[in-house]
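seq as requested:
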Amino acid sequence: GDLASHGEAPYHGLVGAAFDRAGLAVPLLVAPGNHDLERSGHADGAAGRAAFEALVGPRRFTARVGPLLVVGVDDAIHPLDADLWPWVEGVVDAHAGPWLLVGHRPPRRMLEPGCPPSERCAPLFALCARRPPVLVMSGHLEHDAEAVVDGVRWVVNAEGGDVAGGAWLAPPTFHLRVA
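struct tokens:
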């Protein structure tokens, strides 16, 4: 997430044009960030969400990578979609193998001691207790963070890099996360 700014069509168009100029022809699945959805001076995210879906793609998705189910969610701005966590639970329960969750805001307060849970994600924690994911990855913060809580690995990819501990894959101002 946070590919664009202000959740408005011109900003999404700039991102698309930059991808075109870079020759990026791979399909992208993006968990939107707050800057992708929040329009300048507007607290209501409906217009930004609509622009994101029209110009970038779905705000939630699933993708299979071998046996792994990657689940992407729009958790960037409030209010969250009322059916978000039931949807995640349904797609995870329909998949017998391992799963990974990708969102924008960390479901835990990663910079606080003990990484306490965010109340807005309570249904996610019940699911993680019952069906632990391989990894929960998010961004949004200004610094990378990582913790294992109740057997679940929580990673904040603020700057990018290899979650397996390998070398950075790009200049220090922009990095790519490889799981």
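The chain has five helices and six strands.
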